[in-house]
Structure formats: C-alpha cells, structure tokens
Amino acid sequence: MITYNDLYEMLRKEKFSENLQSWPKNFLEDISAYLSEKKEQSEMNSDIFADSVAKTKKQLENFIAIFKELMLRRKKKLLNLVFVAAETGIMKRDYENMLTLERELFEKMVKAFEESEKELAKVFSLKKIEEKKKNRMIIFNQNVGQFVDLFGNTAGPFASGELANLENEVAEILVSGGKAAFVDENN
Known about the structure:
The chain has about 190 residues and is mainly alpha-helical. The chain has five helices and five strands; from the N terminus they run ααααββββαβ. The chain has helices at about 5-15, 25-40, 50-90, 100-135, 170-175, and strands at about 135-140, 145-150, 155, 165, 180.
C-alpha cells in the first residue's frame, strides 16, 4: 500500500521531470485503500487517541492536497502530449507511463483535436471555393482600356483575345456590354 511519504516523493519527481513518471498499475487502488484507512482512523472518537486522530486528519487533508496537485501536473503534461500528438501524429512518448484512465482520456482528446482539424480544413476549402466563385474568367472580344474596378483597383488595359480572371460583377458588366465573353459558360 502507498504511504504519505511515497505520494510526496511521487509529486516531487513529477514536479521536476518533463516526462510523465511511471506509476504502479494498482496506483489508484492503493490511493483508495490509503484514504479509506485514514478516514477510519480519523473517525475514532476515543479521548485516548485524540492527538493521534487530529494528526491523522491533518495528514489525510495533506494527502488529498498532494494527490490533487499530482493529478493536476499529470493533466498538464497530458495536454502537452495531446498537442504534440495532434500536430505531429506521434503518440508514443510517455504513452507507457500513463494510467489506464489517462490513456483513454489522451486518445479521446487526440481524436477530438483531429476532428477539429478536419472541420477547420473543410472551412478553409469551402472558403477557397467561394473565393473562386467570386471571380470569373473572360476573354476579351475587343480592346479595352484601363479602368477602375469596384474596389478602386486599376485593371487593364486588355487586348482583344486576352484572357482575364476578374471579379464576377466586373466580368458581368464587360460581357453585357459586348466587350468580352465568359470562358466558363457552364457556371
């Protein structure tokens, strides 16, 4: 079974190491057993053991605080590993040092990050498609001098037979005026 000093030493190692520390497979069961034992001891109402009970209660409080800090540090390291795995696709680092519940959490978080990246990629690809639709390819039927487009940018001059990829509104004006024709008639 784990002791207060064991847990304190584990926290110290976890604090000063960049990698996740290896813990015994039955670590959580040991923590549970220790907590149960100390709770039983702290609930004794005998006056004979009053000092011992007070000491046990304080030790129990400290043990819980150390355990919470230990788990917080491991969660931070786990998040860093998730970021690395999501960006690089490499998930082996410290994987063997994870507790079962940490492994499950890690895998779920990596999947969530991957799904998020896929959604982000979809948004970017849709934006590119929309940007392409904003411009139209035209071929000029006659020479057209330099002009200012809808955004104040100068365009041209264009010679007869020249291709240009212009904003949809500008292309529509040129085509309706008979000065150009759409190259991509099917759109």
